[in-house]
Design brief:
Length: 96
């Protein structure tokens, strides 16, 4: 994530970092406040108990997880719920 503009995280963190690359939110107006609101949800961290709920508003599309490693086709009205409840990732680090 850090290479894509995200933040560097500690290896043992259970938080889940997300980055929305292309928004599909209709803007109510053309003011800078709307753009600032969009940028607030561009990226963030989900901690224990938090979740991100998305509703797909295009006819067809695809969501990608971990780059191109995992993807899922989406259709109009599909909903996606993202949280950090996955089993922990085992990381093996070299001792310096």
């Amino acid at each position: 994530m850090a290479a894509a503009g995200g933040r560097r995280m500690e290896a043992r963190s259970s938080d889940l970092q997300y980055l929305i690359r292309e928004h599909m939110i209709e803007k109510a107006g053309s003011g800078t406040d709307d753009e600032e609101e969009l940028h607030k949800v561009d990226q963030g961290m989900l901690t224990s108990g938090e979740q991100l709920h998305l509703r797909w508003n295009s006819q067809k599309g695809r969501i990608f997880i971990d780059g191109g490693h995992l993807s899922q086709n989406l259709e109009l009205g599909d909903e996606v719920l993202i949280n950090n409840r996955a089993p922990p990732l085992h990381v093996f680090l070299r001792e310096s």
